[in-house]
Amino acid sequence: MTIVVGNLATPEGQAALDAAVAEAEQRKAPLVVVAGPGEPGWHGADLTERLRASGVEVRMDPGTGDLAEDLVRIALETGAELMVIGLRRRSPVGKLILGSGAQRILIEAPCPVLAVKV
C-alpha cells in the first residue's frame, strides 16, 4: 500500500507534502510524489534531500499535467491506502465552491483522502 501526494509549489502543496511524509513515516508506507502541472521542480535537490532525510521510500512521478487525474490514476495503479491534498482557506462565499481539482479528487478517489487545510 502506498500514499500518493501531489507536489505543488504553493503553501497548500507544501502542507500536503509535509502531511504525506508524516503519514508515510507513521504507516511505514512508500510515498508516490506526483508533479503538478508546470512543476518541473519536483525533482529539485531540496525536495530530494528532504525526502531522503525522512527515511521514507519515495517514487517520483512527473505526471501528465492534470494533477487530479494523475493522482486518481496513480492511486488506482498502486492500490494506494491514502491520498493527501492541500486546501486553502476560502471566504464565506468561496466555501460554497470547492476547487474543481479537489472536488474531482474527492469524488473519484479510490481510497481515503486526507485534506490538509492551510
From TrEMBL:
Protein family membership: Belongs to the universal stress protein A family.
PANTHER family the UniProt entry points to: STRESS RESPONSE PROTEIN NHAX, UNIVERSAL STRESS PROTEIN HP_0031
CDD domains for this protein: USP-like
Domain of life, per lineage: Bacteria
Full protein name: Universal stress protein family protein
Domain UspA: 47-117
